[in-house]
Amino acid sequence: MHRIVILGGGKGGTLAANRLRKAYGLNEASVTVVDQDDQHIYQPGLLFVPFGLTHSEDIVRPRGRQLHRGIDYRTSAIIHVDLAGQSVQLADGSELSYDVLVVATGAVLAPDETEGLTGPGWMEKVFTFYTPEGAAALEEALAVFDGGRLVVNVVEMPIKCPVAPLEFCFLADWYFHERGIRDRVELTFVTPLDAAFTKPVAANHLGGLLEQRGIELVTEFNTGEVDGTGGRLVSFDGREVPFDLAVVIPLHNGASYVARSEGLGDALGFVVTDTHTLQAAVAPNVFALGDAASLPVSKAGSVTHFEGEVLVENIRRFLDGEPLDASYDGHANCFIKTGFSKAMLIDFNYDVEPLPGHYPGLVGLPLLKESHLNHLGKLMFQWLYWHSLLPGRDIPGISSAMPLGGKLQALESNVKERVS
Length: 420
Hints:
Layout: E1 2-7, H1 11-23, E2 29-35, E3 39-41, E4 60-62, E5 71-75, E6 78-82, E7 87-90, E8 95-97, E9 100-103, E10 107-109, E11 126-127, H2 132-144, E12 148-154, H3 164-179, E13 185-190, H4 200-212, E14 215-218, E15 223-227, E16 232-235, E17 240-242, E18 245-249, E19 252-254, H5 256-260, E20 286-288, H6 301-319, E21 332-339, E22 342-348, E23 357-360, E24 364-367, H7 372-389, H8 408-419
Parallel strand pairs: 1-2, 1-9, 2-5, 9-20, 11-18, 12-13, 12-18, 13-14
Antiparallel strand pairs: 3-4, 6-7, 7-8, 10-19, 15-16, 16-17, 21-22, 23-24
Helix pairs in contact: 1-6
């Protein structure tokens, strides 16, 4: 019997476990999932909490209940992985041996690594919405905020869901309009990037939308200190951005046990992974997906879903001694809430940046364009998450490979522009 151990019970670990359980009978493979707690958070929902559009208790469910029957779920912190001995040491004193290991423990916030961030003012005038506790505290702070400068700051990349800070800015613009105090609030988006987003075409669209909404964009700002008492962000080059209320997205690292497991991760604790097969560089029987992998692609939930199809197929091929499937193309897509019951959708991969068009085909959701249809898609995604994506079900017409049909005209125009 094959022994498959999955570290992490978030989206990646859960959908991989459920797909593997369907692929292998109970007598063919054992599937074990390990996580340090039993709280599965629908992370896209955290964005809505500060604006009173949902509540933390509505986006958290037990991890074990999301797993199919026949999957062993263990609640324990992970001490380290013994790659030579093919085993995982857990904090509860037990040890799990494996034939295949899947690392899916995501990215971990590291606010203590930024000077002053968790010092005076933390959870008083300096917040983050990337945790349930932070999002709930920020909801209370926004409810009594009656004017001043609100700054949204990304300390450094990579981060989970890189469009979420932009979404926060757009929703804050809507929120203060709804409260009738938008004219008393200055909104500023501060990023270490040289534009609003990493991809040029999308960056132009999103930067233009920030300008339309009267949201200041500060680029190439590498935050070295957060002064909660004085209300200042201070960059390493000495520039300062003042604030009355700051929403900070902290540094992200890989899980701490990765750093304690010799050879498993890079300097930030992310697993070095083949960009197309999802096989880890450190050992042929180790795979990684989602935010835990060091792939040059957004750390977004859609990425994890698309990777999952290829990963499960490659675990099967590895155990059967077959060549691996190198078909993962870096496919990612993201809904970007822009407020006022509208949203934008972007779809891209390693080679093709977000372009106008439709998804998934010539007829579908509009790309790089605000629409109410995209807003409805964003809202519907939560139901799909719990009832389709996590259980490991296929969505008709949606696959891991990025579809080109709805972008063909846009692709042709993009090529002509580059040639000229």
